[in-house]
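User: quick one - fold this with zinc ion bound?
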Amino acid sequence: MSDCIFCRIVAGEIPSRKVYEDDEVFAFHDIHPVAPVHFLLIPKRHIASLAECGAADCDILGRMLLLASKLAKEQGLDAGFRTVINTGRGGGQEVFHLHMHVFGGGASLPGF
Ligand code: AMP
Ligand code: ZN
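Assistant: Sure. Structure tokens for the protein plus zinc ion:
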């Protein structure tokens, strides 16, 4: 059994509120949403973080970006959404399985 919480979610060993699934990608609602809609997009294959990605991962990264937009629309985020990938301890990453936060809805998010 994996000790990675997101690998265990993909395997169905830990319950999640699934948004989307295909052969390579899994998406589920964040357990601590920061906006009315907040879900996470992950590769099914364990990749610790964006910093571990290389040229071989171009396809999965591109698919995750395109799915972020498609799923955000399906979740009703017509006015827009934010994507965030925290990388490494310095980037605020807490779960070391690559994931893209997609969130929005309600009041407009503040700019950086
Ligand atoms: P990060 O700081 O980018 O590593 O964010 C990890 C995210 O995973 C946080 O927003 C958590 O709320 C979320 N999270 C942790 N465990 C779960 C879980 N079991 N189901 C859904 N989301 C989770
Ligand atoms: Zn994992």
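One thing worth noting: The first helix runs from residue 5 to 10.
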